[in-house]
Amino acid sequence: MARTEYQHDVIAWAREQAHFIRSGQFDLLDREHLADEIEDVGKSEQRELANRMAVLLAHLLKWKYQPERRGNSWRLTIKVQRKNIAKRLKNTPSLKPMLSDPEWKESMWGDAIVDAMKETGLEDFPETCLWTFAQMLDQDWLPD
């Protein structure tokens, strides 16, 4: 059986690797690329959490700094992001330590500010995050 090259067709390669694992043909596994792919799953989960947090924060910023434009759409986005973040943290508890990483929080805050600036036209947002993670994730909390 000709082995599929990782660089040639990653989907066919993944199916083939799964077949090798299930059939106990461990000597045929592409260990290096498998290890890379497994690590990438973790990175993907981290990126997904960071993206959801940035969207949440951008909407919290818009809520705080454009009170005249508050509406159900923003409220719904905030609610949905919080719900999805909570689900992600429940299903992947190893993501929780990221919430206490100041560098990660700073990066996410920067992404949120860029998004809020694009969407509002405002430029005068604080350089550091205004809220705790407990506030951000509290389904009943909104900034004044």
Beginning-to-end CA distance, first to last residue:
65 Å
Number of strands: 0
The average pLDDT is 94
Please describe the biggest sheet, giving its number of strands, its sense, and whether it closes into a barrel.
none
Determine Rg (CA atoms, Å): 20 Å
Helix segment tally = 5
Poorly predicted ranges (pLDDT <50, ≥5 residues)? Answer: none
Gross morphology? elongated
Count of separate structural domains: 1
Alpha-beta content class = mainly alpha
H and E string: HHHHH
Approximate strand percentage: under 5%
Would you give an account of this structure?
The protein has one domain. Helices cover 64% and strands 0% of the residues. It is built from five helices and no strands. The protein has helices spanning 10-22, 31-65, 72-91, 102-120, 133-137. Helix 2 packs antiparallel against helix 3 (72-91) and helix 2 (31-65) crosses helix 4 (102-120). The N and C termini lie far apart (65 Å). The mean pLDDT is 94.
SSE layout and pairing:
Layout (H helix, E strand, L loop, with lengths): L9 H13 L8 H35 L6 H20 L10 H19 L12 H5 L7
Helix pairs in contact: 2-3, 2-4
